[in-house]
Specification:
Layout: E1 10-14, H1 18-24, H2 29-50, E2 54-61, H3 69-92, E3 96-100, H4 108-121, E4 128-135, H5 137-153, H6 164-168, E5 181-184, E6 203-206, H7 216-227
Parallel strand pairs: 1-2, 1-5, 2-4, 3-4, 5-6
């Protein structure tokens, strides 16, 4: 049981274990990725029903380009198909779609679909879904630093104004609150270059299940664990 009055407002999830899930069943890695993408829809529905306001999904990192080209190409097609097949339903469900990460080397076609999805759902007031695609925490901080320097050069900002609060304005989704809870599936206990700035005081939860096996009940269990903790933010 969970207290719906203290559900984390923003939940971030590192989606992990698709390939190992498939290998355990004697299937190609691509099968795990396809099942994993279907699982996203179920978790989004569950998150919305539980009262979560924002859910950020880490689906492809800047380091994932090192994987075999065949797997990368399959994943890019899967993301593209997800936007083709699901975005209208997300819009009907009042879900707002966002994406964070670097544009290059994503294809122009995929970027156009991301922009369309963001524009289509921009005015929705329900669950906000943030897809971290071609994302890296260090890359985000570097990009934020570059934007800050550009603003100083353009005389819209000064060095004297730099502090943690003002610097955070230059991050990818600076208008969104930092995550209250981070979930990582597959039993791995690391954050893998995800939201390095934003996770400073986020509660971490490491689920043993692979992502394709992660269900609504597992999400509820993670929230229940979160609610048993006391967040002090450096205080007493």
């Amino acid at each position: 049981m969970i207290d719906k009055n203290s559900v984390p407002k923003h939940v971030a999830i590192i989606i992990d274990g698709n390939g190992r899930w498939a290998r355990k069943r004697g299937l190609p890695r691509s099968a795990g990725h396809h099942v994993g993408i279907k699982r996203i829809k179920e978790i989004l529905k569950a998150a919305s029903g539980l009262g979560i306001k924002i859910i950020t999904l880490f689906v492809f990192s800047t380091e994932n380009w090192q994987r075999p080209k065949r797997e990368v190409d399959m994943l890019m097609r899967a993301f593209s198909n997800f936007l083709d097949n699901e975005i209208d339903d997300l819009n009907k469900d009042n879900i707002r779609f966002r994406a964070i990460g670097r544009d290059k080397p994503l294809t122009a076609d995929l970027l156009a679909k991301i922009r369309r999805a963001q524009e289509l759902t921009a005015s929705n007031s329900g669950l906000t879904v943030v897809l971290a695609l071609n994302y890296g925490g260090r890359a985000e901080i570097v990009d934020a630093a570059a934007r800050f320097v550009q603003s100083v050069q353009a005389n819209t900002f000064s060095i004297r104004q730099l502090n943690e609060k003002t610097f955070s304005r230059f991050l990818y989704a600076s208008d969104l609150p930092e995550p209250d809870l981070l979930i990582r599936t597959s039993g791995e206990s690391r954050i893998s270059n995800f939201l390095l700035w934003q996770l400073a005081y986020t509660e971490l939860y490491f689920a043993k299940k692979y992502w394709p096996d992660f269900t609504r009940n597992d999400l509820i269990e993670a929230i229940a664990d979160y609610q048993r903790r006391q967040r002090r933010f450096g205080g007493l």
